């Protein structure tokens, strides 16, 4: 039930038809008696800058979830951003501080890393390869750096994109070894597909499967199918792995902490979510 005391969390993006966050947050709020609601709000890019500022003038606004195509443009509209957001170059959560400032953070990578750790894989001191240096790949790189990996290898078909991420990582983590230009997975403890490859039937595999060791932990970000062809192939090699939707469910506890709500576990969220 939405009342005059309900805290509003806007889910900002365009278009809104595929939004899944309300189907996870709202059942959780209802079950736990939290007087808050996530509301999808479709905002076209040309209106976004003005709309975000006006949105946070509402007396009952508590925060916003940010999704495509606004994650990058949000950065210039905030008063304060986390290191993760700065390294990623994008933001997917905004809250209003008690003094009226807009504070932004990025949790895609946090969700990925929490999932890896919960599955028992050590991140600190690890060597990790990320294929894809776009928004989600950059966010994962930021969180892996924050969690203490020793070496990050970045590959992207657009070398300029990969180099820009390397520069941001070196700025905030000067001791971190960061290399770009190769997608060879040999010798890495963690390998991540952060490309869209696997979303469409017939896509090539993003990484040479024959060069992945069975001891390597493999992560996927594609969510259209739980076991993508890439995960199917690494599973056959004996690799431990993480499916794309794990990143989604694992980041929500971090969001809840950011918004100062009672937090929970990814397993609990999966159990009460209103979609399959």
Could you describe the 3D structure shown?
The protein is an alpha/beta fold and 276 residues long. 34% of the residues lie in helices and 20% in strands. It has nine helices and twelve strands. The chain has helices at residues 22-31, 45-55, 83-88, 108-118, 135-146, 159-172, 229-236, 244-258, 266-272; strands spanning 7-13, 36-42, 61-66, 80-81, 93-96, 102-105, 127-131, 151-155, 177-180, 190-193, 217-220, 241-242. The protein has a six-stranded mixed beta sheet. Strands 9-8-7-10-11-12 form a six-stranded parallel beta sheet, sandwiched between helices. β8 (151-155), α6 (159-172) and β9 (177-180) form a beta-alpha-beta unit. α4 packs across α8 (244-258). The model has no long low-confidence stretch (mean pLDDT 94).
Characteristic terms for this protein:
single chain; 276 residues; alpha/beta; 6-stranded mixed β-sheet; 9 helices; aromatic amino acid biosynthesis; plasmid; oxidoreductase
Helix content: 25-40%
Q: Whole-Å distance between the termini?
A: 24 Å
Arithmetic mean of pLDDT: 94
| Coarse morphology | globular
Taking strands numbered 1, 2, ... along the chain, how are they ordered across the largest sheet? 2-1-3-5-6-4
Strand content: 15-25%
Pairing-aware structural class of the strands and helices?
alpha/beta
Radius of gyration: 19 Å
H/E series = EHEHEEHEEHEHEHEEEHEHH
**Poorly predicted runs:** none
Number of helices: 9
Number of strands: 12
Q: How many strands, what sense, and barrel or not for the largest sheet? A: 6 strands, mixed
Domain Shikimate dehydrogenase substrate binding N-terminal: 13-94
Pathway: Metabolic intermediate biosynthesis; chorismate biosynthesis; chorismate from D-erythrose 4-phosphate and phosphoenolpyruvate: step 4/7
Protein name: Shikimate dehydrogenase
Organism: Rhizobium beringeri
